[in-house]
């Protein structure tokens, strides 16, 4: 994996080479703090140890009873679904086992998915660190009933990944369900390279060991200088640009197999760094599609954005047939991948031409090693950014208010947050 930050030097907003030097001094101090946290396996910092602490053999043996199913249905939300979805999305070409994710409680979507699944050949992978997340438990109860209605013994097809206590741990113990522990000290959004993010891929027969190896290669680059570590460099430069007004970061991968990666990055970046009035808003984008959409804003809107362009150096290609279509004959003989790469480079240059800061990230391929590198580097970037910004990277207190309000609205207890919902200021237009 490599990072090219040439297009953030002297852009607007931008940084200078002198800024980079000063930033590097701060990275060295932050790195020492991070290493202390990793050494002590402190909450959050422990996530950066996962490439050397996760036990893929343990994951595979826990899943032994399920063999190779036709489909895996992961029920979880946030970091308990997005890491697994990112890995399955990136490596879908490695497996014939379908991966589906229920990480919302939209009844029409859930009904359509359950109608489409071969429930008797589907492993239900229920993931929740706390075991109290309303969406996850609600979806589990609905899926379990659908399995029972279909005459499927859900206890034979359900796998649980959870903490040492709580509803899901009790369920696993009561029904002797195969299960794995969520590792200590790893917040959900940092858990992709753990049992949480790897179990689904293991059920699909994906090369989870390769994912961990890729992550390990980026872990081995962590050092006191941003010039050694693409992850640290990305986090430090994104922080410096945010300090200079780039309050949005458009994550724009040029690969359909990285679309979930952008969604996973959005949680990691927003939930970790959006604290005390600080943070940088992750915008999920996709190349080349968003060249016909959001690029207008990125290139000609407010000078308040960083655009992150991600692509694999290699991809399987499809030749575009020769054509005499008016003005399009140049496409003949090229490949779709050639076109996508040309558009990547054109977008990068079009932003630079307007002095709009953008960073290029390249992996050799969207394969096990590549996705492991990419996810680990972004986690390291997040931790570095959080250290430089001085925020509490590994907590998420702001999400609790809404949870209490929703629970109160459903009669799950007396919460002043639910009362506040009733006090909504109204000004309606019909
Ligand atoms: O794994 P759990 O406990 O169900 O939490 C799911 C998600 O909800 C959050 O705790 C936020 O509510 C995320 O940080 C987490 O990834």
UniProtKB/TrEMBL annotation:
It is found in: Cytoplasm. Its EC number is 5.3.1.9. One of its GO terms (cellular component) is cytosol. Keywords: Cytoplasm, Gluconeogenesis, Glycolysis, Isomerase. PROSITE patterns: P_GLUCOSE_ISOMERASE_1 (PS00765), P_GLUCOSE_ISOMERASE_3 (PS51463). Pfam families: PGI. CDD domains: SIS_PGI_1, SIS_PGI_2. GO terms for biological process: gluconeogenesis; glucose 6-phosphate metabolic process; glycolytic process. Its main location: cytoplasm. One of its GO terms (molecular function) is monosaccharide binding. InterPro entries: G6P_Isomerase, Phosphoglucose_isomerase_CS, SIS_dom_sf, SIS_PGI_1, SIS_PGI_2. Catalyzes the reversible isomerization of glucose-6-phosphate to fructose-6-phosphate. Belongs to the GPI family. This is Probable glucose-6-phosphate isomerase.
């Amino acid at each position: 994996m490599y990072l090219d930050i040439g297009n953030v030097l002297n852009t607007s907003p931008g940084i200078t080479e002198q800024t980079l030097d000063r930033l590097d001094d701060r990275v060295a101090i932050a790195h020492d703090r991070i290493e202390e946290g990793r050494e002590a396996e402190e909450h959050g910092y422990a996530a950066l140890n996962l490439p050397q602490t996760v036990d893929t053999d343990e994951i595979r043996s826990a899943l032994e009873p399920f063999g190779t199913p036709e489909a895996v249905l992961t029920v979880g939300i946030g970091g308990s679904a997005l890491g697994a979805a990112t890995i399955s999305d990136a490596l879908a070409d490695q497996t014939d086992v379908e991966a589906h994710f229920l990480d919302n409680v939209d009844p029409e979507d859930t009904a359509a998915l359950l109608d489409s699944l071969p429930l008797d050949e589907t492993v239900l992978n229920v993931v929740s660190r706390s075991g109290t997340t309303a969406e996850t438990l609600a979806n589990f109860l609905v899926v379990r009933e659908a399995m029972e209605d279909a005459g499927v013994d859900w206890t034979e097809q359900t796998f649980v990944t959870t903490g040492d206590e709580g509803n899901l741990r009790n369920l696993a113990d009561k029904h002797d369900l195969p299960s794995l522990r969520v590792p200590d000290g790893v917040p959900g959004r940092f858990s992709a390279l753990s049992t949480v993010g790897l179990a689904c891929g293991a059920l699909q027969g994906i090369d989870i060991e390769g994912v961990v190896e890729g992550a390990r290669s980026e872990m081995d680059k962590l050092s006191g200088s941003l010039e050694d570590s693409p992850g640290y460099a990305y986090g430090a430069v994104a922080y410096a640009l945010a300090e200079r007004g780039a309050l949005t970061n458009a994550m724009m991968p040029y690969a359909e197999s990285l679309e979930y990666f952008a969604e996973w990055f959005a949680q990691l970046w927003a939930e970790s760094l959006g604290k005390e009035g600080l943070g940088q808003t992750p915008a999920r984008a996709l190349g080349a599609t968003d060249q016909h959409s959001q690029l207008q804003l990125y290139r000609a809107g407010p000078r308040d954005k960083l655009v992150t362009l991600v692509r694999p150096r290699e991809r399987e290609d499809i030749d575009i047939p020769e054509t005499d279509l008016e003005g399009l004959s140049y496409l003949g003989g090229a490949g779709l991948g050639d076109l996508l790469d040309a558009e990547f480079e054109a977008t990068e240059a079009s932003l630079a031409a307007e002095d709009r800061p953008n960073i290029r990230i390249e992996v050799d391929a969207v394969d096990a090693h590549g996705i492991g590198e990419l996810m680990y580097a972004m986690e390291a970037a997040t931790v570095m950014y959080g250290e430089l910004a001085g925020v509490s990277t590994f907590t998420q207190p702001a999400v609790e208010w809404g949870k209490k309000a929703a629970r109160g609205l459903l009669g799950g207890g007396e919460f002043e947050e639910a009362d506040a919902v009733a006090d909504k200021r109204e000004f309606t237009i019909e």
